[in-house]
Structures are given as C-alpha cells and as structure tokens.
Amino acid sequence: KAGVTQTPRYLIKTRGQQVTLSCSPISGHRSVSWYQQTPGQGLQFLFEYFSETQRNKGNFPGRFSGRQFSNSRSEMNVSTLELGDSALYLCASSLYSGGGAYEQYFGPGTRLTVT
Amino acid sequence: AQKVTQAQTEISVVEKEDVTLDCVYETRDTTYYLFWYKQPPSGELVFLIRRNSFDEQNEISGRYSWNFQKSTSSFNFTITASQVVDSAVYFCALWGYGGSQGNLIFGKGTKLSVKP
C-alpha cells in the first residue's frame, strides 16, 4: 500500500501571499488531519476532515482552511501568509473519524518558508 | 485542560545502553488514549503504540516497552539495547473525549541520539 503523500515537499512564499498544500491519504482511509510543527510551539493540530466534512478544528486563525474531496484527498490553504507560518505541515490519515484517537499514518510533510 | 509533558529535551546514549523516555500527562477525561510516535530525520511521524485509559498493562514489542501508570499519570517508553537507528525525536501524545474531539495533544518531544 502506498503511504501518505504530500505535495509539494518544499515551498518558499512571501508575506501576504497565499499557499495551498495537498495531501493524498492511504487508500481506503477517509480521515485526514493536518498538523503544524514549529520549533517553538511543537506539533499542533489544525483540523480534521472525514468524508468531505470538517470534523474538528484546532486553535488557529481563519486564515487556515482546508477541504476534502470525494476521493479523500485533502488540501489546506493559508491566506495572507505571515512569517510565523513558516513550519513543517504534516498530514495524517486514519481509517476512522476522530482520527487522532486511532493509529495515524503521517506523510513526510511540506516545509513552508515565508520570507 | 489537557497537557503532555516530556521533561527530557535531549538524551544521548551509547549504543546498547537502555534508555527511558518520560511522559507525564494531564487530563480530566476518564476515557482517553495515549500514544508514542517516532520522528526520524526524514520528518514523517511513525506510530509506535496506542494505549487506552482502561488498559494499564505494560507492553513489550521487541526492544521497546511501555509502562503506563495512571496513579502517576505517566506513560514511559523504554528502549532496551539501543541502536543507532533509534536516533530520532520521540513524541508522546494524548487524545481525550472531554476536549475537542479529534484534538491530539503532543508533548514537545525528546530527541534521542544513539552514538556508536
């Protein structure tokens, strides 16, 4: 089985721009969660999608949004980028809703640098 | 509030030494799950174990073992006879029903360096 894939792997953007990151879960997995990892704040939950519906959202501003498609692929979007958005963005897939309560499979992440 | 504390920021050992990574958690939930994940230099987190709050049995998997003690709110992870390939950042995490469902709380991680 192919693992979780994330594209692109690296991205450099300028403050004020917007960015879209993509995640393809393991085949058959319907839950996709997104996490932000920074040296200062560590790993923080962004949101979870299950069957195209957002099931839960972490404590992030509205500039962070996401969606899930019928094939379970997910995208997250960050608008009006700030320097503090520089981070590793990790996507994780799981079979069940409430994915964080179950074994999750993580992708390699997208390293976003905002200049 | 839910919280996970990994007091050890970095640990360095020599190959074949045993090493224990500490994890202390806080939650008001009676039903919760605890996890350990490994993050090698490649970046992706790798699932190691999931333990529910009603199962305090210790678990052993090869060189890995976990000690769950509700009385001290701890879920410690021991690697026996460490190897260089064990070098990674290890995260302890907590998921509970009382908080926002789906919100997995991670500790800050412990960076383990195993030297040959």
Can you walk through the features of this model?
The complex is a heterodimer of chains A (115) and B (116). Chain A is mainly β. Chain A is built from no helices and 11 strands. In chain A, the strands form 2 sheets. In chain A, strands 2, 4, 5, 6, 9, 10 and 11 form a 7-stranded mixed beta sheet that branches. Chain A has a 4-stranded antiparallel beta sheet with strand order 1-3-8-7, with no helix packed on it. Chain A is globular. The mean pLDDT of chain A is 94. Chain B is mainly beta and 116 residues long. Chain B is 0% helix and 53% strand. Chain B is built from no helices and 12 strands. In chain B, strands 2, 5, 6, 10, 11 and 12 form a 6-stranded mixed beta sheet that branches. Chain B has a 4-stranded antiparallel beta sheet with strand order 3-9-8-7, with no helix packed on it. Chain B has a two-stranded antiparallel sheet with strand order 1-4. The termini of chain B are far apart. The mean pLDDT of chain B is 92. Chains A and B meet through strand 5, strand 6, strand 9 and strand 10 of A and strand 6, strand 10 and strand 11 of B.
Question: Layout of helices and strands, plus pairs?
Answer:
The complex is a heterodimer of chains A (115) and B (116).
Chain A: E1 5-7, E2 10-13, E3 19-24, E4 31-38, E5 42-50, E6 53-57, E7 64-68, E8 74-78, E9 87-94, E10 105-106, E11 110-114
Parallel strand pairs in A: 2-11
Antiparallel strand pairs in A: 1-3, 3-8, 4-5, 4-9, 5-6, 7-8, 9-10, 9-11
Chain B: E1 3-5, E2 10-14, E3 19-21, E4 24-26, E5 32-39, E6 46-52, E7 59-61, E8 64-69, E9 74-79, E10 88-96, E11 105-106, E12 110-115
Parallel strand pairs in B: 2-12
Antiparallel strand pairs in B: 1-4, 3-9, 5-6, 5-10, 7-8, 8-9, 10-11, 10-12
